[in-house]
Amino acid sequence: MQLEQITSSQQAIDLEDKHGAHNYHPLPVVLSKGEGVHVWDVEGKKYYDFLSAYSAVNQGHCHPRIVNAMYEQASKLGLTSRAFHNDVLGPYEKYATEYFGFDKLLPMNTGAEAVETAIKIARKWAYEKKGVKETEAQIIVCENNFHGRTTTIISFSNDEGARKNFGPYTPGFLKIPYDDTEALEETLKNNKNIAALMLEPIQGEAGVYVPSEGYLSRAKALCEQHNVLFIADEVQTGIARTGKLLAVDHENVKPDILILGKAISGGVYPVSAVLANNEVMDVIQPGQHGSTFGGNPVACAVAMAALEVIKDENLAENAEKLGNLFRRKMNDYIRNSSIVNLVRGKGLLNAIVINDTEDSSTAWDICMALKENGLLAKPTHGNIIRFAPPLVMNEEELLDCVNIITTTLKDFEK
Ligand SMILES: *Cc1c(COP(=O)(O)O)cnc(C)c1O
C-alpha cells in the first residue's frame, strides 16, 4: 500500500472526511507548516494563528529551543515508564515546583487526565484528611465549565453536545453559577461533604468569560473557611496567556491544587501536570495512580524548555501589554460598530461577541472571511470569536492583525 502524498488542501480534507471520525468541525484550511506567530497551508498561503491550538502554542510554533530539547532527548532516551526512574523527571519536578511555588508535581499527558487526577486527589483528601464518609464526597463545579472530555468530566458539563447519550454519568458533583459568590457560600454552608471547588479562573471554551474582580479571592477565602480545596484548572489560562504566569495571580490567589496542560509543552508534545503541597499530594501513594507516558523523559525535557522560554522571553509581560493594546483598538472599532457588541478578556486571551443570535452563522462567516484575509480564528459557542495569538507576537504584528480583523468586520456591518 502506498502512502498518500498531499498536494492540495481539498485532497487532505476529503481523506479526513472519508477515513476519520467526524468529531470536529474544522475551518476548511489545511496547515502544513508553522513558525512563531504564523502558519502556512498546503498551497503556501501564510496566516496569523489567532487560536494557538487553544493556547497550547503560547511560545509560538516550532520554537527552536523547545524543538531542540525534544529532539535531543528523543534521540537519547524516550520512554522508561515509571517502573524505573529516569534522569530527567527529578530535575523537571524540581524546576517546575519552584517555578510555580508548590511542594510537589504529578506528571500526566493531557489536560483531561490532569483534571481527572485532581478530582481523585481531592476525593482521597476528603476521605483521609477531612473525614468525609467514603463515597460521599462532592466537588463543586461551575455552570458552562470546560474541563475536558472523559466520561467523568462530561458528567458535570452542561453542554448538550458534550454530554448527551454518553451516560450513565459519574455522581459527586454540584453545579453552581460561575462568578456567583453567594451561590458558592450557600452550597458550602449546606453541605458538609465538599472536598473541593474546581473552576477555570477565566472560562475559556464558554467564550472567555472573565469573572468580576474579587471573585477568585473571595471564592478562595470561602473555601479556606469551610476546609475545602480550591482547584484551579489553568490548562488554558495558565503559563503567561492572561498577562501573568497564572490567571489566579491577578488576584494573588494560591490554589490548593493547580492543573496545567497545553502550553506547558509549548504545543510540541502532550504534557500536563497537577501541582499541590505535601499535605494534599501525599494522599497519593505507590500503586494508587499513574500513567505509562506521564513524566517520560521527552515530556520533561520539553516542559523545562517551554517554561524557560516563557521567562526568558518575558511572555507574560508581552501578553499583558499587547492584550491592553488589542482591547483598546477593538473598543475603538466597536464604538461605531453594529456587528460587534463587545470585546472582553485578559492578556492575550480575548473574545468578541457578535451582534447576532447564538445559532446564526455570522461568527463562522466572519472566521471564513478572516481566513481569506490571512488570519485564523474559530467561533466558540455560536456568536463568540476567541482571539488568542501566540505570545511571541510583537506590537507591529498585533497592529497588522487588528487591521485585518477590523477590515474584515467592516464587510459585515449592517
Ligand atoms: C483544553 C482544556 C482541558 C482539556 O485538555 P485536553 O488536553 O484537551 O484533554 C481542560 N481544561 C481546560 C480549561 C481546557 O481549556
UniProtKB/TrEMBL annotation:
A Pfam family for this UniProt protein?
Aminotran_3
Q: What class of enzyme is it?
A: transferase
Enzyme Commission numbers on file: 2.6.1.13
Q: Which keywords fit this entry according to its UniProt record?
A: Aminotransferase, Pyridoxal phosphate, Transferase
* Record carries keyword DNA damage: no
Q: Which InterPro entries match?
A: Aminotrans_3, Aminotrans_3_PPA_site, Class-III_PLP-dep_AT, Orn_aminotrans, PyrdxlP-dep_Trfase, PyrdxlP-dep_Trfase_major, PyrdxlP-dep_Trfase_small
* Pathway listed: Amino-acid biosynthesis; L-proline biosynthesis; L-glutamate 5-semialdehyde from L-ornithine: step 1/1
Query: Which Gene Ontology terms of cellular component type are present?
Result: cytoplasm
**One of the GO biological process terms:** L-proline biosynthetic process
What this protein needs as a cofactor is: pyridoxal 5'-phosphate
For this chain, the family text in UniProt reads: Belongs to the class-III pyridoxal-phosphate-dependent aminotransferase family.
Q: What is this protein called?
A: ornithine aminotransferase
| Provenance organism | Antarcticibacterium flavum
